[in-house]
Amino acid sequence: MTGPDTSYPRAIGLVVRREFLAQVRTKAYRWSVLLMSAAVVLASVIFGMVDDDGPATADVAVVGPGTTAVAEQLPVAARAAGLDVRVQTGRDPQGARAAVEAGIVDAALLRTGDGPDEVLVRESLDPQLGAALTEVVRTEALTRAVGTDSAAVLGALGESAFTVRALDPPDPQQGERVRMAWVSLLLLLTTVLGFGVYVAIGVVEEKSTRVVELLLATIRPSQLLWGKVIGIGASALLQVLVIGAVALVAGRATGLITLTDTAVAVFAATLIWSVLGYLLFSLLYAAAGSLVSRQEEVQGVTAPLMLLAMLAYGLSIGAIGDPGGTFARVAGWIPPFSAFVMPIRTAAGAATGWEIAGAAVAMLLACALVSRIAARVYTRSVLHTGSRLSWRAALRG
User: Which residues cross the membrane (predicted)?
Assistant: First the structure.
């Protein structure tokens, strides 16, 4: 076999073009993009139509003058709005605040008797409960003003308004962040599992048809490896861009997300981590594919990689629930788990700039190490036919 005489970058570019076109021209690729885009639009419409009706029941502490009247009227007014309210009395203002902080009650109405009342909530006041409180407070104010002149009645109505104070105000974009975290996670999982397997299948297909022998007559194994990984990766990135753009437009149209700096930053983070995650896994998939010679052996040789990806997926689901917790912070630094966890932490706003940069550097170093291992395995086993090679045998040569 004559030595390769094609320039290294140009040879990789030729393989990239070949692999990219081979992917995007298939009906399976086009249908997958179309169906996933349609699924994103359908999910956006469904979630956009589902209203948050708030809690079915609520506990309210009432403190101050007129407690008895409010305690009698509030459940009736709330029931008309489809809400079951249980009123608690007998607390002082400090006790009512403590009850709100502890989650014992959903809200506390602090009545002053000579000015606007105050409603304490932990995060936000449920609209139905707020409407019921407004009705009761105004009714009670009118009752006290009966028999006085019209000016006194108007004054009582003016004083009946209450202010709402949240003890732990929520992030107004929290819901949007969670939705984008889920979209990011699903896109990443699709990229890693779907296109990583394509890399392994492509390697085995070239081995089984002896095409790889013709290719390696003119280019090096490392050129073929990187061309295949980058070419299929480019088609994966195109799919992520299309589906991500559809998700942003559909989410904006249905009111699920707003095209703010947060959405743009999350989408950019998704692209970056999708590339890094795909790069690491696809190199491993290519090396794994080179160990076997038949298509029916692909599933067995790639099963450990699929389990690793699913483990990372499971860890990232846990990070959605507590993105700022110790578990998520630690997992965000460990490749390949960081490829799944860091987009979630970024979407939730729980990751600092130095954490994102540090995790990205760690992931790049992991990719560099994996690329050396994968290139070694691929080079030594891609021309092997017959029985399946083990990782140890391929590494030892």
Answer: 28-50, 180-204, 225-251, 263-288, 300-320, 326-344, 356-375
